[in-house]
Amino acid sequence: MELKFSKVERKGPITIITLSRPEVYNALHIDAHFELNRVFDDFSADPEQWVAIVTGAGDKAFCAGNDLKWQAAGGKRGWDKGGFAGLTSRFDCDKPIIAAVNGVAMGGGFEIALACDLIIASENATFALPEPRVGLAALAGGLHRLPRQIGLKRAMDMILTARHVSAKEGLELGFVNEVVPQGEALTAALRWAEMITKNSPMSIRASKQTIQKGLAVSLEQAIEEQREYPAVKAMVASQDYIEGPKAFAEKRPPKWLGR
């Protein structure tokens, strides 16, 4: 697949996806959304790829959100079924996705990060949902994910004021996992990804899916139904389910197959 607005690199079982429109702070338009939807489709379907990292080209921006200049010039808006950047409505991916936020993450850019499982931010990263300042609203998941991730009152603070939040404050609020020096977000995200890949990918997928499905129902229902979740059933039926205890008993590192 020819890529015009993104770049894809693979390091073993880790896929690095770079939003690549640096001339507009990696803001996205309809063609970029559809391209990224295909990129995430490929990652989700590839059994050899276990973890993804999303970052932005250049050192100024992760993603400035929707390309408002494109929109103001009459450019058509819209995205594929995966949502903004092919990610914000992608509820069926049980593989971990890490955001390496290397600068501005505004509007849809922040919504991309919130849709990831972990956020690693450089010291120069800035987060906001500024849509109300231009007559819009954060309808690519931001208005729903932020309250769920940091609590209602803290989210209302950011949403109603549309103010900018630093990486340090993001860590304090709880939506950032780690803050690193400028220029080191991707390196740190790779460190996190490598830690994840030391675990069974079947167990990781079962864990992520169980969390996602469980949060949508009561605790009682979640515990009662979790063994019927597809990723949990796949884990129990996998070779990794046998390999893990066997490697532990033999006092050796496990050899995960991801199946």
Overview of the molecule:
This protein has 259 residues and is an alpha/beta fold. The protein folds into 2 domains: 6-197, Alpha-Beta Complex (2-enoyl-CoA Hydratase, Chain A, domain 1); 200-250. It is built from 11 helices and 10 strands. The chain has helices at residues 30-45, 68-72, 108-115, 142-150, 152-161, 167-173, 185-197, 201-215, 219-225, 230-236, 240-249, and strands at 6-11, 14-19, 51-56, 61-63, 97-101, 104-106, 118-122, 126-128, 165-166, 178-180. 44% of the residues are buried.
Summarize the structure.
With 259 residues, the protein is of the alpha/beta class.
What keyword list fits this structure?
259 residues, alpha/beta, 2-enoyl-CoA Hydratase, Chain A, domain 1, 2 domains, 6-stranded mixed β-sheet, 11 helices, 10 strands, Enoyl-CoA_hyd/isom_CS
- The poorly predicted ranges are none
Structural class: alpha/beta
Nearest-integer average pLDDT: 96
CATH architecture assignment of the largest domain: Alpha-Beta Complex
According to DSSP, the number of beta strands is: 10
- The end-to-end span amounts to 26 Å
Number of domains: 2
Rg, alpha carbons: 19 Å
Largest sheet: 6 strands, mixed
Q: List the strand order in the largest sheet.
A: 1-2-3-5-7-10
What portion of residues is helical? Answer: 40-55%
Order of helices and strands: EEHEEHEEHEEHHEHEHHHHH
Give the CA-based shape: globular
Which CATH class of the largest domain is shown? Alpha Beta
User: What is the CATH T-level topology of the largest domain?
Assistant: 2-enoyl-CoA Hydratase, Chain A, domain 1
InterPro entries: ClpP/crotonase-like_dom_sf (IPR029045), Enoyl-CoA_hyd/isom_CS (IPR018376), Enoyl-CoA_hydra/iso (IPR001753), Enoyl-CoA_hydra_C (IPR014748)
GO biological process, one term: fatty acid beta-oxidation
GO molecular function: lyase activity
Family: Belongs to the enoyl-CoA hydratase/isomerase family.
